[in-house]
């Protein structure tokens, strides 16, 4: 297991950020009902994994807390997001989700459809931060070779835009 973590730590193309210790045991409403417990869960993950940056995406929630700017998704977790922001965390949400089927993890949208959604959101300034977009893509979507090629196709399409830059989340503007 140590080799596994070392691979991630040493790989410059992988950025390790916080997403909680328990992922709320998939009981989000209960998890967020106690700010102290939910924040402690995230702090435990930070400490155990020795994460360098204080960047977190809340499990099951699309919330933002950056430089005094905030956005909530209407679900529970507001106090947790606020508490983490007070502790100096960047709470990152997403602007667009490449959805997947729960049964088998396969993408819902085609490569072309998600590509068009990305371009449209950027062009219409419908993102948390103008000229920036965070796309949530779940790892279970790309377990098979053909699925990996879909991700590659999307990246290749986006790279055709001279003004599009792929960047690590730690460089997201504040």
From TrEMBL:
InterPro entries: Glyco_hydro/deAcase_b/a-brl (IPR011330). One of its GO terms (biological process) is carbohydrate metabolic process. This is NodB homology domain-containing protein. It comes from Empedobacter falsenii.
């Amino acid at each position: 297991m140590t080799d596994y973590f070392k691979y991630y730590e040493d790989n410059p193309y992988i950025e390790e950020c916080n997403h909680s210790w328990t992922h709320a045991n998939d009981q989000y409403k209960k998890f967020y009902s106690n700010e102290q417990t939910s924040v402690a869960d995230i702090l435990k993950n930070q400490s155990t994994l020795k994460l360098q940056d204080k960047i977190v995406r809340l499990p099951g929630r699309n919330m933002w807390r950056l430089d005094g700017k905030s956005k909530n998704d209407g679900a529970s977790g507001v106090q947790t997001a606020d508490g983490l922001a007070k502790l100096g965390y960047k709470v990152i949400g997403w602007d667009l989700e490449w959805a997947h089927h729960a049964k088998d993890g396969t993408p819902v949208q085609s490569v072309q459809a998600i590509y068009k959604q990305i371009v449209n959101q950027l062009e219409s300034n419908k993102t948390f931060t103008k000229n920036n977009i965070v796309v949530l893509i779940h790892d279970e979507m790309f377990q098979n070779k053909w699925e990996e090629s879909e991700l590659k196709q999307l990246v290749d399409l986006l790279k055709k835009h001279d003004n599009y830059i792929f960047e690590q989340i730690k460089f997201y503007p504040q």
